[in-house]
Amino acid sequence: MPRWAVLQAEGQAEAFRYTVHRELEGTEAEALAAMLHIVNTFKEAFTSAGRQRQRRRVFRVSERSYFVRVENRMSNEEAHFTLAELIADTHDDDLPDTVGGLVEGS
Questions:
Q1: What is the DSSP string of 14-66?
Q2: Are residues 36 and 47 in contact, defined by beta-carbon separation less than 8 angstroms?
Q3: With contact defined as beta carbons under 8 Å apart, do 86 and 4 qualify?
Q4: pLDDT digits (tens, 9 = 90+) for 57-72
């Protein structure tokens, strides 16, 4: 069964930090649905105190990539979420060790 990761880039300009927000197993449609749930719940429109945020915008970059910008009175937060498929893993007999197959000289 395919494995996926929702990658999250967060920060401002060159200070962006990339992390694996969540790893998933399942079909592409299931993984995409899970990522869309993550995007929709990131800094939701209302705070935990029930106040509405000034502005929350979601941009679709591609079918597997979304950018969220949340503007509050005193700060702005941004995050970029991308769905990525796991295609190489040195600890999985079902997957190759590298993207291109064998590495020369090894």
A1: GG-EEEEEEEEES-HHHHHHHHHHHHHHTT-SB-TTSPBPSEEEEEEEETTEE
A2: no
A3: yes
A4: 999 999 999 999 988 7
- Integer angstrom CA distances of residue 83 from 32, 37, 42, 67, 104: 7, 12, 15, 12, 30
Structure-block tokens of residue 102:
């064998």
pLDDT of residue 16: 72
Question: Cα(59)–Cα(70) distance, rounded to whole angstroms?
Answer: 11
d(C-alpha 82, C-alpha 74), whole Å = 27
Q: For residue 24, how many other CB atoms are within 10 A of its CB? A: 19
